[in-house]
Amino acid sequence: LELFPVKLTRSDLELFYRGFSNSTLWPLYHDCVRFPEYHRRWWAPYVQVNQRFARAAVESAVPDAAFWIHDYQLQLVPAMIRERRPDARIGFFLHIPFPPVQLFAQMPWRRQVLEGLLGADVIGFQTPQSARDFAAAALIFTEATGDEQRLEFRGRTIQVDAFPISIDYAAQVAMAERPEVQARSEELRDQLGSGRALFLGVDRLDYTKGIDLRLRAFETFLGRYEDAAEQATFVQVAVPSREHVPEYAEIRTKVEQEVGRINGAYGEFGSSTVHYLYRNLPPEELSAYYLAADVMVVTPLRDGMNLVAKEFVASRVDGDGVLLLSEFAGAADELEGAAIVNPYDLDGIAAAYDSCLNMPPADRRARMENLRCQVEQNDVFAWSSAFLGRLFG
Fold first, then answer.
1. Distance CA 9, CA 14 (A)
2. pTM of the complete model beyond 0.70
3. What are the pLDDT digits (tens) for 366-377?
4. In sequence order, what are the beta bridge partners of 161?
5. Is the pLDDT of residue 240 over 80?
């Protein structure tokens, strides 16, 4: 494997990455959970950086090379490569959701972004709904014709489909089976209170993840259900992310205030009800947390897929545990056997916490067996094979 770096300046980082990519596209593509900012001064740097990546890809490629471009930062690259290499096979995969037409229509540069993507031969999305939303936008805002799965644009045929991404299932299982990981899992359970059910959240500290809402729902659960505070504890791992962005500082403050309020109301001297870790955990440590948890809480407000849900499932080599999953995560389309919730419905989540806590062991194990089969069969290698098979088929 040979890597060819593409250098970015401080100005690129500010305007292309922090600006257009993460303050325009990211919130827009996540259902406007935060209002996107549309600044003209960000658009030209986005175009220029995409041109730089396209040029570097073409210059480093062998004559018969194919190109596979990834994610929202590089949506103009397919058409830019097409201009330089008209006969090349070009694929594009979007890791985050594609928004509904009514939201995408807001963006002043909607046609340019769509035409950039239409330079590819195969355009892949996490879910069928995102694929349909893209095709609908292309049919409305560009010259493209066709249907949801096959578009005609400037004399070429573009295939549009869902290719849900996954994890290296075998590697995750092997890690969870290590004796030191299993011993650490038992140690965590002892530290967090023998006999108490462990609810676990693991997320980047991002406003799309719904961390503050799930904690408020846990507070509701503690106050509504008898003896809940003695029966359950919550561990939230929040991985630092984009700390310079005001919206991310705001969500950190909200989460930490919620943790403090719950512990003030329900904690005991020397014992917290909510344990909050603002850090990145090594893979082995994270695997031990997955094994220790009784309920994995994955409740984003909108997510392209969410691989934490799949990592948790693969890690449960004991065949136990419950996955509580937002209906707005792409993984909800695949993971039959998860307990599905609306992440905005605090009463519904609180009730789901109680239901998960009291789920019969046989039901838990049947659900987990089904989940593990799904993730094993549709691992990251199946994902890449499906996409590349379509690109070269």
1. 9
2. yes
3. 999 999 999 999
4. 124
5. yes
